[in-house]
Amino acid sequence: MRTIILGGGFAGLSALKTNPDALLIDQKSYFTLTHRLVDVIKTGDPKLAKIPYHKVLVARVRNVDFRKKVVITDKGEFQYDKLIIALGYSQKIFPFTEKVEDIQDSLELRNKLLRAKSVTVLGGGNLGVELAGIIKEMDPLKEVYLIEVQDRLLPFMSKESSTYAYELLTGLGVKVLLKNKVEKIEKNLVVTNDHEIRTDLIISSVGFKGSPMISEIGLTNINGRMIVDDYLKSADYDDVYGAGDCATTKKFIPMSAQVAVQAGRRAMLNALGEDEKFRFNQLAIVVRIGGIYFGDFHGKFVKGELAELAEKVGIFRAIRLVMP
Q1: Which residues form the FAD/NAD(P)-binding domain (predicted)?
Q2: Domain segments of the chain as ranges
Q3: Residues in the chain with pLDDT values less than 70
Q4: CATH architecture of 3-91+208-282
Q5: How far is residue 178 from each of residues 103, 146, 162, 203, 281, measured CA to CA in Å?
Q6: pLDDT tens, residue by residue, 148-167
Q7: What is the topology classification, in CATH, of domain 103-206?
Q8: What is the DSSP secondary-structure string of 259-290?
Q9: CA–CA gap between residue 215 and residue 210 (Å, rounded)
């Protein structure tokens, strides 16, 4: 039986680790540590977020013929018996804003940040909070706004984490605007329900969705995420599975590296013949501001060495997925 995996992120590599005989196809020759993209922005060193693959077919997927069970790429066509789709996430693109999806985005954003005197970050989730902190670290004199529509930062984390993030960022001089809904974006202008901000650079860290390819190949989806059942099987085809940020059940699966790793393994095991429901366990969510690590571990607020250890364990596990 031939199994093909599309996408070499956390979910795809976890699936390959579970079944090394599978064929993994990715358009890049390296694995991206997405949570290290802010470090690339800060330093300009792409190696901080890049780990070379050792067993991946580097090719661009053009289409999938689900009836004939064929993946069509720029390097040829490949027949499969089972297909695992793990194409990751993308960001919704708004006019006049910058995004941070990959290493190239990070390098381009760094160059623009070096020239900007004022920056506005949209979205107070993990990425937005870390971006605001990194930008202030790069230049403490730079004017930085962080806009969040809800009444606290990191709204999906504990209130202790939200409060701590607010204190750290405002201590660095970031102007945090809570309960501010963006109503209009123009070049060098952000208008909210409470403020009108003139700014040199606008960065979006909101609007995460699945890979655009999910819609392009005709799979049923919600917000670009293919719909799967409790066994991670596609709602459209019995021999197709989805894992990671590009897939969700109707009940919702969180978009995170930890969950993606678990989903990749379960999707592969089920593709190989097991029939077990996917149950995820998100042990830790760690954020870093100004070199200080903090977050939620088993649902409880932690900071300092324990939080840093949890984050480094996550990186170590990611590297192990890529290494032979």
Answers
A1: 2-264
A2: 3-91+208-282, 103-206
A3: 313-324
A4: 3-Layer(bba) Sandwich (3.50)
A5: 29, 8, 11, 17, 30
A6: 999 999 999 999 999 999 99
A7: FAD/NAD(P)-binding domain (3.50.50)
A8: HHHHHHHHHHHHHTT----------EEEEEET
A9: 9
